[in-house]
């Protein structure tokens, strides 16, 4: 499934990723990209459903410096060379979660960080939305 539409300054792209994973336990995985031109926000939303309870996390890969919000609702991605920054806001449904951070080893080259919303327990359904905006535009 692939859907693309645009209305009132909001562009939406929806793709069904279920068949991209070789597991019989995955009932559905749908990723939605939303570009809200009015608010200056780009969002990526994963909605997952399993046949039986399963572990799930939703990662963000970055080379930027990561500054976590004290209230655990988001973080800031800082690109020091260009004095740029993005605010990332999380909206999570499905259970208790934590931010999990790892380095992806990349011998001989810069190693990116993997920041993931990781659910504490196995689950049947979850929704994870990450919304990105320029730090200077946050309201």
What is the element layout, followed by pairings?
Elements: E1 2-7, E2 10-16, E3 26-36, E4 41-54, E5 57-62, E6 65-68, E7 74-79, E8 84-93, E9 97-103, E10 113-119, E11 123-134
Antiparallel strand pairs: 1-2, 2-3, 3-4, 4-11, 5-10, 6-7, 7-8, 8-11, 9-10
Strand order of the largest sheet: 1-2-3-4-11-8-7-6
* Strand count: 11
What percentage of residues falls in helices of 4 or more residues? Answer: under 10%
Mean pLDDT: 93
**What about the largest sheet?**
8 strands, antiparallel
Strand content: over 45%
The unreliable regions are none
Class by SSE composition: mainly beta
Our measurement of the CA-to-CA distance between the termini, rounded to an integer number of angstroms, reads 34 Å
Mass-distribution shape: globular
Q: How are helices and strands ordered from N to C?
A: EEEEEEEEEEE
- Number of separate helices: 0
Rg to the nearest angstrom? 16 Å
